[in-house]
Amino acid sequence: MRFCSSCGSSRLDFRIPDGDSLPRFVCGECGEIHYQNPKVVVGCLPTCGDKVLMCLRAIEPRRGLWTLPAGFLENGESLSAGAARETLEEAGATVEVGELYTVISLPQIHQVYMVFRAALPCPEFAAGTESLEVRLFDEQEIPWDRIAFRTIARTLRNFFLDRKLGAFPTRVSVLERRQPVPPDLRGAG
Amino acid sequence: MRFCSSCGSSRLDFRIPDGDSLPRFVCGECGEIHYQNPKVVVGCLPTCGDKVLMCLRAIEPRRGLWTLPAGFLENGESLSAGAARETLEEAGATVEVGELYTVISLPQIHQVYMVFRAALPCPEFAAGTESLEVRLFDEQEIPWDRIAFRTIARTLRNFFLDRKLGAFPTRVSVLERRQPVPPDLRGAG
Q: In sequence order, what are the beta bridge partners of B131?
């Protein structure tokens, strides 16, 4: 943010407004306070029988790695509507959105991931413009070393464990920034 | 949004960018696309024994009505950290944030409410600057006709029902815009 979106002034300060506790972009001309807040990423874990539908990313970040269909929640839509839309756009699949499954805060990149379980009634799907390939995987086939995002790997790991346990409670967690390995521990195993 | 926050130009169009499906503010000068997305409201349902902690709002909207402590999730914090912060700010209470309880989409106002159950280990609390009064209510005392938001009323109704049932699954729902009552049904009961 370099200019005030209300008045066009370039006199933007990044400071704590009176009565607030966090720094914001504040316009020195018109006084407008510009709040910035985390975004919600919604997606589906679509299943057809024992298999899970995944997408090979055609775009950056993480082009050429596998993911679940997911993207930013848009104004005017509910969480489940957004999850269904992303699945249609990225995987060409019409799903029945089920229960909310994983909720993962990513505070360092200002995102909250929310993934729903979803039923894929018939195995009809096709790569959307953001996908190179879309296919069904059973548990043994999941490309664990080629998953695009840690949120997706965590969701899939939870899913296969919970499936064995026979229940899918909503799983809420936080993914902090990956800590660099200190030099004296590198190569220590 | 009246000016581009990247270049300061007033040549903003509200149109569907190439390859997109929804209208966005697009700068006619520098080409920047300004995405706008829903915000997350996080809060707590703090309990102390059989009682629930609520806040009487000191600010608009809904000044003079009762709510649970809640507010916008900030960049850099997890959902549960945000819920704890809002409870400390509005109710002067330090809680142990528990499980995610209600998740309510409000598509018409571009918000998602997420309320956690929380334990208030000792009944110490005080009205923050956004509250006129903070107090504990047992179920019979809840001021049902003076609740600030439908999300809060729904959360409380679910809670007292689930407490009788002895389990608190995460409850995901949507609150659509309240439909006006058609003239021919007004007064019909």
A: B57
Domain that holds residue B79: 39-174
Task: Say if strands B24-27 and B70-72 run parallel, antiparallel, or are unpaired.
Answer: unpaired
pLDDT (tens digit per residue) in A55-103: 999 999 999 999 999 999 999 999 999 999 999 999 999 999 999 999 9
Contact at CB, B169 and A170, closer than 8 angstroms: yes
Kindly state whether residues A51 and A17 are assigned to the same domain.
no
Q: A81 and A75 in contact (C-beta within 8 Å)?
A: no
Q: Rounded to whole angstroms, how far apart are CA atoms B175 and A141?
A: 40
Among partner residues B4, B37, B40, which is closest to A75 by beta-carbon distance? B37
Q: How many Å lie between the alpha carbon of A108 and the closest alpha carbon of chain B? A: 5
Evaluate whether residue B141 is within a structural domain: yes
Let me know whether A105 and A45 are in one domain: yes
A45 and A129 co-located in one domain:
yes
Query: Amino acid identity, residue A129?
Result: T
- Find out whether B136 and B52 touch, Cβ atoms under 8 Å: yes
Whether B38 and A36 lie within 8 Å, measured CB to CB: no
Closest partner residue to A37 (CB to CB) among B7, B19, B39 is: B39
Q: Which residues of A touch B74 (CB under 8 A)?
A: 22, 37-38
Quote the number of domains for chain A. 2
Between the CA of residue B137 and those of A157, A168, B29, B55, B152, what are the distances in Å? 41, 33, 56, 10, 14
Cβ within 8 Å, pair B103-A100: yes
Give mean pLDDT, residues B59-76.
96
Q: Residues A145, A176, A136, A124: what is their CA dihedral angle, to the nearest 10 degrees?
A: -150
